[in-house]
Amino acid sequence: MRLVFYIFIFSQFFHFLNIFAENIKNDSSEFNSIKWEKVEETKSKTFKKIIWRSYKNDESYFENKKKESSIIKSTKSSNKESISESSKNSGSSITEIEPFLPLNNFLEYGNFRTSVRWKSSFDGGLAEGTGQQNPSFVLDYGISDSSLMTIYFAEADDDLYNLINGQRVNYHWQNYALSFKKELLNDKVNGFRMSLRPTIEYWRQASGSQFSKSIYNQKDNLAGRDRFDNLIGSLSLPISKKFNENFTALIAPGISFLPEKLGSKAINKNAYGNNFYIGSGLVFDLEEDLNLLFSYTTPLGPGTNYFDSDLNFGRKPIYSIGLGWDINPKIGIEGKITNSFGATPSTGLLTIPSDNLLLYSAYINYRPYENDTYLKPLNKRDKSISNGGITVNNALIPTAGVSQIKFNYDSRGNLFGFYGYSLSNIFQLELLNIGSFNDLNFSGSRNSNLYSTYLDENNFNYRLGGKLLIFSPQKDDLFWLTLRSSVGRNDDSNQGYLFTEFINTFRLNNWLAFNISPKYFFSGVESFGGLGCSSYINLSDNLMLIPEINTSIKNDSDLNSTLALRYSFSPEKSLDLYYSNAVGVQDIGQLLKNKEYRFGIKWNFLL
């Protein structure tokens, strides 16, 4: 609820600024005209005094005012043309509703944008876990103001959502795609725009294993893995109409070129085939940086975009609804509910293999060339705590362009490494969070399924996440508030979980700060909440005491504690020595209790 409240206040504040700025511009233009008339009537001596006192010898100020006045007059005289021209850049951070539904928006020449995207089912189906995911990476580059090149990479690897003829069957998709979007029409008066976007892709598909039969095998019942490499493609023609500054409608006819038969063991159709489709979409600009997105697409055939647990192929409409929010000019996020599982233009029309389900998708868009949110610099003591704690994180984020590195080892063999990079002053991407839990000793059989799934003997956990700053005293808020989320899996059991926390950090005085961090663990095995509390107590300029407590909120709750001593060689480099009975420092390990305490060491670097 705090995040929703913040979005509302933030958007209203920007709306007020826009109105205020317009009034100032209008008033200033009128003021300038009166002033220029008075120049001839006022004695030059008096007028010079006003210039010297008011504008500090900078007579170029009047040149800037002349230019600004001419721009304002030009804007007023051609209001319609200005609105349609601004539509080219309005909402330009959103260049597509779905990969197969491009919008007629472009980046300026030479600008580029990267996106990390995540599509997932709400549960793992047969594979269990948090869901079946299709993560992707996208790079947009403005070849010109009216042409855009986009590169996609996506990979999905899991057991099919449903049993196939009573068997668990693995599948693997890997896609590399290159698309080129070129503007064909831009009617500035009526708001009509049209583009053409062809795409070529390399698609690697695989199914089956030594224990299960491939879904592409229609000849016999032998187990085995089939793999196919294909060049596929798509072509779309997005046509949009901008009815006003806040509402755009889209119609996008297109075709996807996919194989209909794969391999020598195909008797009949065992793949999707080519598909004509008609896509439609709506974009509502709720505020300057907040968009509401809708889409509905009908596949027309002759191919298909869906198959069920009996390998019957068919066609299903594809739909989505979501929000896009530019948090600041550098960082944008999108969230949607959809049944589109594919992550590239040619495969985006496909549902999750073996079913047709509602999925969720989350995007993080990064525009490095744009301005960042300004934050006041941290003082020395606040900078020394920005590396977080041991089992309780804090809400501070290193400034844009700074790398954060942590390395942890304890007396029973737990080993973890972390690398994060701040894309913005308000967003850190956790690129590498890996390690293994070792020599664990639990009381009784509590949480046995949880432990065997994520903390088994051969566990190796790797995770990817992000940290978004919402409130900060560096921009005159009372305290720091950060939302952090991470996803990942245990390499041995191939099961994953989602970990989320709302981190609140308060600075009481020069020597004391404390954290309150509600946490939530979500998985196909078990889900529960927790709470972490910690303090930073400065004993001297370079020495800090960090007590921490975590508890899980469930019937058989775990309560663990940690006591750490931090020595800071500099605000950017520190060493922690700690004593803890938490299972480990990585996400799930923070909320669980080990029967025995262990000593540990942790190195922290900001580079």
Keywords:
607 residues, alpha+beta, Porin, 3 domains, 13-stranded antiparallel sheet, 7 helices, 29 strands, 16% helix, 48% strand, disordered N terminus
In the predicted model, the low-confidence regions spanning at least 5 consecutive residues are 1-91
**Secondary structural class:** alpha+beta
Helix content: 10-25%
CA-based shape: globular
- CATH fold-level topology of the largest domain: Porin
Count of domain modules? 3
Largest beta sheet, briefly?
13 strands, antiparallel
Query: How far from one another are the termini?
Result: 35 Å
Computed over alpha carbons, the radius of gyration is 28 Å
Q: DSSP helix count?
A: 7
Q: What's the architecture of the largest domain in CATH terms?
A: Beta Barrel
Level-1 CATH class name of the largest domain: Mainly Beta
Describe this structure in words.
- By secondary structure, the chain is an alpha+beta fold.
- Helix content is 16%, strand content 48%.
- Strands 3, 4, 5, 6, 7, 8, 9, 10, 11, 12, 15, 16 and 17 form a 13-stranded antiparallel β-sheet that branches. A twelve-stranded antiparallel beta barrel has the order 18-19-20-21-22-23-24-25-26-27-28-29.
- Strand 6 (170-187) and strand 7 form a beta hairpin.
- The longest helix has 40 residues, at 2-41.
- The two termini are 35 Å apart.
- Mean pLDDT is 84; it is low at 1-91.
